[in-house]
Amino acid sequence: MSPDILGQDTIPSIDDLIHNERINLRYKTASRADYIRETNPDTMTCVFDNNTYTILSNGKIINDTSQDFVFLKNKDVIDNIYLYIYDNDYIIFFTETDFEDSFSYAKRINSKTKQIVWSNPIYAFNLGTPVIVDNNAYVSTLGFVGKLDLNSGKYIWRHEDLYDDGKFNAFENPIFLEKNYVIFPSPHYFTQETDYLLVNDNTGEAVILNTTN
Q1: How far is CA 158 from CA 43, 91, 148, 186, in A?
Q2: Angle made by CA atoms 90, 185, 9, in degrees to the nearest 5
Q3: Alpha carbons 142 and 128: distance in angstroms, whole number
Q4: FRET partner for 21 with CA separation of 20 to 30 A, picked from 4, 96, 101, 145?
Q5: Residue 121 CB contacts under 8 Å (≥ 6 apart), including other chains
Q6: How far is CA 59 from CA 24, 180, 204, in A?
Q7: SS3 label, residue 179
Q8: What's the mean per-residue pLDDT of the chain?
Q9: CA-to-CA distance for 156 and 136, rounded, in angstroms?
Q10: Are the beta carbons of 142 and 120 closer than 8 angstroms?
Q11: Tens digit of pLDDT for each residue in 56-102?
Q12: What is the pTM of this model?
């Protein structure tokens, strides 16, 4: 695949891109927390690197083994949350809601000082599983994808306002291709078709694809 594929008049089909250019890039994912509805409906739990974490309704996140804890300092009710440990700090990706509106964020919390190192919005709801490659997180919500630097908390690139009548309602895990390209698959909300966003991982330049490309 040519490194300037996004500048070409004709882009290879999505099947060709996925089946011929896909690479087996090793990545990690943040762990999703689930509510313990049977015993405590206001408490969530997840497992990351063999450690179990409990997340209370007030935003307190507790390592059940060490009893170390931090506070998320959320304003509203946590609707969806993923946890990742990076350089011994907590990286939290979450959606909070006041039951009228929902908004997502990423935060890094220092495990020793308990202070928030950085915080950045991931915009809407439908938070996808954050995928971590080295010191970057690929994140998505409704109509939004971005590549977030976990050290600075800043976006390397991002694309927003992608939602269009059911298109890019939510995203599956990204697919990594040769020549530093990334594909974000997105099942259409109203149909059985899948739309795709192809991004140059170096420049952030992007083009929308579908199964007919």
Answers
A1: 32, 19, 8, 16
A2: 125
A3: 9
A4: 145
A5: 103, 104, 105, 106
A6: 36, 37, 33
A7: helix
A8: 90
A9: 9
A10: no
A11: 988 999 999 999 999 999 999 999 999 999 999 999 999 999 999 99
A12: 0.91
Q: Is the dihedral of CA 204, 23, 21, 179 positive or negative?
A: positive
Low-confidence ranges of the chain (pLDDT < 70): 1-12, 37-39, 210-213
Segments of the chain assigned E as strands:
28-29, 31-32, 34-36, 40-48, 51-55, 60-63, 69-71, 77-86, 89-97, 102-109, 116-123, 131-133, 136-141, 144-149, 155-159, 175-177, 181-187, 194-200, 206-209
The owner of tokens 């966003």 is 197
Count CA atoms closer than 13 A to 152's CA, side-chain side.
6
CA separation for the pair 177, 108 (Å, rounded): 29
The pLDDT of residue 139: 98
Beta bridge partners of 22: 177
Distance CA 20, CA 75 (A): 46
Which letter, b or e, does each residue of 193-208 get, where b requires 16 or more Cβ atoms within 10 Å of its Cβ?
eebbbbbbbeeebbee
Structurally, at CATH architecture level, domain 1-26+129-213 sits in Beta Barrel (2.40)
